Amino acid sequence: xxxxxxLDIAIQFKHRVLLRAPARPVADRMWFNVAARxxxxxxxxxxxxRVSSRTLVVPASYGPRAEALGAVYxxxxxxxxxxxALDEKDAKFAPFWPSAPRDLQNQEGRAELSRxxxxxxxxxxxxxxxxxxxxxxxxxxxxxxxxIGAVIAAVTSIPFVGWLGWVLLPAVVPYIRxxxxxxxxxxxxxxxxxxxxxxxxxxxxxxxxxxxxxxxxGVFATILNVYLFLGLLYCxxxxxxxxxxxxxxxxxxxxxxxxxxxxxxVAIAMTMLFPPVxxxxxxxxxxxxxxxxxxxxxxxxxxxxxQSQSARFNLGKQGLMEDFNRQALETQxxxxxADPSPFIxxxxxxxxLRKKGVKKSYDTNSPAGISIEDLFMHAMIWAETGMGKxxxxxxxxxxxxxxxxxxxxxxxxxxxxxxxxxxxxxxxVIETGVHLGLIEGLDAQxxxxxxxxxxxxxxxxxxxTGISSLVIDxxxxxxxxxxxxxxxxxxxxxxxxxELETEIEGLLQVRDRDEANGNDVADIDEALNRxxxxxxxxxxxxxxxxxxxxxxxxxxxxxxxIGDVRADSNIPGEGLLAAANYIGVQPIHLGNxxxxxxxxxxxxxxxxxxxxxxxxxxxxxGSLLQQSFGWVLKTWPAFAAExxxxxxxxxxxxxxxxxRGKYLVDDQGVPWHSIEHGSVNVxxxxxxxxxxxxxxxxxxxxxxxxxxxxxxxxxxxxxxxxNEVTExxxxxxxxLPVIQIMDECQNLIGREEQRILPISRATKMxxxxxxQGYEGILAKLPEAAAQQFCxxxxxxxxxxxxxxxxEYMELRFGVEEMTMFKHKTAxxxxxxxxxxxxxxxxxxxxHPNAAGMKQxxxxxxxxxxxxxxxPVSKARWVGQKFTGIQATxxxxxxASGRRESQPLFSKSEFNGLLNQQGRAILWFNRAGVxxxxxxxTPFLPLDKVDDVVKAIKASRAA
Length: 958
What we know:
Layout: H1 3-19, H2 26-41, E1 55-56, H3 63-69, E2 72-74, E3 79-81, H4 126-130, H5 138-156, H6 173-203, H7 206-211, H8 214-237, H9 250-273, H10 276-288, H11 290-312, H12 320-338, E4 343-349, H13 352-355, E5 367-371, H14 372-375, E6 379-382, H15 389-403, E7 408-413, H16 418-421, E8 428-430, H17 444-452, H18 462-516, H19 522-543, H20 552-563, H21 574-583, H22 593-609, H23 624-638, H24 641-659, E9 691-693, H25 697-700, H26 702-721, H27 727-732, E10 738-743, H28 751-760, E11 765-771, H29 774-780, H30 783-791, E12 795-798, H31 803-813, E13 815-821, H32 830-839, H33 850-858, E14 863-865, E15 876-878, E16 886-888, E17 890-892, E18 897-903, H34 907-913, E19 919-926, E20 929-936, H35 945-957
Parallel strand pairs: 6-11, 6-12, 7-9, 7-10, 8-9, 10-11, 14-17
Antiparallel strand pairs: 1-3, 2-3, 4-5, 4-20, 12-19, 13-18, 15-16, 19-20
Helix pairs in contact: 5-6, 5-10, 5-11, 6-10, 8-9, 9-10, 15-35, 17-18, 17-26, 18-19, 18-20, 18-23, 18-24, 20-24, 26-28, 28-30
């Protein structure tokens, strides 16, 4: 039996007797209301931890419950769905809505808005969040005191057994303690006197007995008069601002004073006029109203505080910005749930941005990462030497391998060593001993792009490299034409050889028949001899080594032929003229008119009698081949010899390392530059064969970079060709997505990477590049091109790096709406307030004066507030039993936050937050929406790579 039981009896009587309907118990109703209010302000309104969906996630045992809500089982998909006739956003389906991915959940977000869209500061007091508010049953605690007093008064009035009523006195102790715990000891004492002791004394006649004494009555009358005079004087002259209860001004205060004093005087008069039993119980009736007085006072005080907070701390309302953020976060969750590719964790968030109120940030200790589908927007890692970017790349590769996603790695490294370190994760490693055709699989355009892609350290000024690039371009076009023309003539020779062999076989059969019939076969023999000579010519031509193989060695030979210009007359050398004559270029004037006329006549006769020996592009005016031969035969020789030498020096910077690479050979010692068709097909990467290029710069020097450029260009060519068909088509021919890894990319990148990055998103090649900072990229690309290159990466891992890199990233990260605690008047720092409470000596159990601190707390110290405190009249008080000792009573929560657009990370934060290995800013394009924070990042030590790979493969096999 308790106060709730008494209330239940009354309510049950009302509903069952008067309303003829069942009633919910009081405690249940209170719990329901409290739970509803808590749900409204619990701080996860914008979390989107679940999103509405017609397809529900229903555990097997919960099927009947889902059907009871209206869901329908779909046998085809083995799921429960919400029918079109029902609203999928109906909250009753919420338990079965899909959960957001772990990295997109918000378990600790600051409640800026309540669930019904109100500013949270207008609903919640800091004391409620940090130390707990008043119990909703406190009003009942006040009401219990006069009820128990009335029961005691009634029981003690029964003859003979009345003394048993005094046994009930201890029953008031729990209620007094509850009031003291919530409202402190002074309020509990006042309530006990006014609602229990005085009414009980009046009911038992103790007050009348005391009042019959003239001395006591005189003292009481004097005190009463002084109280009324001073009270009225205070109401008239005291400043309204210092009275929390003066809600409405002095007149309101005077009316309240008059009302309560009139009620008190009436009660005294009634006590004196009526018998003790009736007069005393009138005191109990009035004491029962004390709870209402408390409730009204507390309601007014709390309303004033919340109204003040609502006016001063308005972080929650951001207009359309708030709506857009909410919509973006919900869309992000939906898109992530629809993404079938594996999630790859890149780190663990530290919650730095979440504490600053950034909407699109991570909870503390939340996994930070992206799906592989997100990775097709490319990722860049910036970290200075020693920060562990290579170990981080190894770890990412292991995670992708572990995910089982069907794809292939293509591993490159500016230092040439990464492929060797992750050998176990690859199916093919290109290194010394491999039979590799160095330019196999490239066309003229690809060869030129590969050789001129990366800016070399020894390159001269741009004008020189520009002309050198033209030399390589025209030479590649010419070599490709010579190569194809030679193959065509070889094919014609093979066809002619077969034709001659067939004709000879037929004549031999005729000769044998005629000879058997005694006919003359001399003419046939003569024809056979003639055909035999022609066949021998064809066999000899086919047996000769081809002159124009598609190899780097022949390309170098052609470059030398182009560079060989006669010094005295600026006429091309014999080698280039021979190549031009072989392919069928029209003769040029070489200084001798008669010779020129004769050669033109020969070319005309050749065109008339053997047009197949002339490349068809040479017969098309303005063709690419015509332009290239015109440039090398006419424009190039016209340059001064010294100028040609400078141009050729730049060309040789790219060819000599490849031609003289001591270790660029196969297992038989054959140089790669001389191999036309190798046993390694780089194109297999497109079909799922993971490949890496292991050409360490310590062994291969500049040649390693050039080799990787040639190989990567083959990959880019295949990726570009995917644009010509649909994804279904290239997947239909057995191709898979590719993940290109490029460590120390500053040594490898060029315009080809700048061009391929935007293209490869649609053709499913994800790029993970790593370098030391922005300066390395600027050294290889012009500033505009460098910015475009960097802007192609939508996912970033930023470790400690250079100041210039920080400047770029500050601009790239942009600005976000966040809470800045600089000036008073704009926001509540709840975390700061909690820290202040925890750090304050009042709450230190090990403090030397812990007992004294406890007394201070009992006297009211330590209450967390956010409203402004007047330093004269409010901030200091004379604690109970501490006369003459002043101390700060309230702990003022930091309330200086302002919702502002600020850089996501400032320069000072870059230096401070990233000055530790294993700490990085992860900035992702996760499901189409930004996510960022400072994160702890893992790494894979080199000596653990083999063990990790073995474990992954064993897990797959199992």
